[in-house]
Amino acid sequence: MNFHTRPHTFVTHVQLIVEDLDRSLSFYKGILGFSVLKEEEGAVFLTLDGLKSILSVVQPENAKPKQPRTSGLYHFALLVPNRKELAKVLRHFISIGYPLQGASDHLVSEALYLADPDGNGIEIYADRDAEEWKWENGQVVMTTEPLDSKGLLVESAGSSFDGLPKETIMGHLHLHVSNLQEAEMFYCEGLGFEVVLRYSNHALFISTGGYHHHLGLNIWNGQGAPAPDEHHAGLKQFTVVYPSSEARDEAGARLRNLGYGVQQLDESLFVKDPSGTLMELARG
């Protein structure tokens, strides 16, 4: 099943604030295999397929280091098309000595975790077949177990890494929020996502169409965590795509009814979540 096409609603693009644009581009191009699609208003839009951008980076004036214990980015997650491609990524990181922050089996997927030079969290993962996912009482079963790295590397024997494959997409986005209840109301009642897993009382995983998650929300940086100050490295904004203009406009109306300030610019809507994170609501 494809959970990142119509009629689903999902995250398609993430824009990051970085301290040093050249350093950032060196990482994303040299280590992960992105190329520059276009430059616009001080932002560099990166691509893997040469057609669309799933990630962009911007260096503001007076750029500052990432702030700890704030809301915003936990990690963005790049979904590769299959296990062999994930194995090639792992072999690549081992060969160049790039440090990983983790490697996990989540039952629904297998994942590698790392950070870019600014400390922005990145997950690179491959999904297991959706028919293998388990659901209990309406919630998807996910856990965090050690990744079978040796078994995974067998998949890439004899293969070389030439950059992330062109089929790679923005699989999901995981955010630090300041209040989980407020975030649930905003993202579910407002944007239209559904809760697929409540992780104790400190994290939510939400999606459309029965995906294991298009968005993760957590309070691991603390209840009431403040939004980062402007110009600090981290998440600048992200894009949520709806299957139609009508679905997008209905989400905007629901958010306004909840008291959120929704602004229209050209053909997109822009709004900040309760934790101060900016997003674009676009139509597919």
From TrEMBL:
Domain VOC intervals: 10-127, 169-284
Pfam families: Glyoxalase (PF00903)
Keywords: Metal-binding
Superkingdom of source: Bacteria
InterPro entries referenced in this protein's UniProt entry, alphabetically: Glyas_Bleomycin-R_OHBP_Dase (IPR029068), Glyas_Fos-R_dOase_dom (IPR004360), Glyoxalase_1_CS (IPR018146), VOC_core (IPR037523)
Gene3D superfamilies in the cross-refs: 2,3-Dihydroxybiphenyl 1,2-Dioxygenase, domain 1
Name listed for the protein in its UniProt record: VOC family protein
Taxonomic source organism: Fictibacillus terranigra
